[in-house]
Amino acid sequence: MHILTRAEEEVLFKTLKANALKECDPIVKEFVECTHGKLVTVLWGCRAQHKAMNKCLMALTTQADMDKLKIQYLNDLADGKVDHAQLQKEQRLKDEENKKKSKSNGPGVH
C-alpha cells in the first residue's frame, strides 16, 4: 500500500484546482470582465458574479472530489501508469525553482 506524500497531495490539489478553473472558465471570465474599470466598487458591483464563481469552484473542489482524484492516482500508480520516481524528481525541481524565485525577490518578499 502506498501512502501519499505531502508533495503528491499538493500536486493532486493543484490538479483539482486547475480542473475546476477549466470547468468554471465561462463564469470566471464573467467575473473578470465585470471587474474591468472598477476598483473599490468591484466589492458590490460584481457581487453576483463573484458569488457565482465561488459557488462553481467550491462545487468542484470538495473533499469527495479530492478523494476520487487520490484513488485514481493510487490506482494508476499501482497499474504502473504513473512513474513515482519521475513525480518526485519533478517536485524537487519545482521546489528548487521556487527557492530560487524567493531568494531573487529579496528578504521579506514572498
UniProtKB/TrEMBL annotation:
Bias (Basic and acidic residues): 89-99
The protein's role, per its UniProt record: Required for mitochondrial cytochrome c oxidase (COX) assembly and respiration.
Species this chain originates from: Linnemannia exigua
Keyword flag Cell membrane: no
Taxonomic path: Eukaryota, Fungi, Fungi incertae sedis, Mucoromycota, Mortierellomycotina
Source superkingdom: Eukaryota
Keywords from the named record: Chaperone, Disulfide bond, Membrane, Mitochondrion, Mitochondrion inner membrane
InterPro entries assigned to the protein according to its UniProt record, in alphabetical order: Cyt_c_biogenesis_Cmc1-like
Family of this protein: Belongs to the CMC family.
Pfam short name (any one): Cmc1
Entry keyword annotation includes Chaperone: yes
Location within or outside the cell: Mitochondrion inner membrane
Region (Disordered): 89-110
Name of the protein in its database record: COX assembly mitochondrial protein
GO CC terms in record: mitochondrial inner membrane
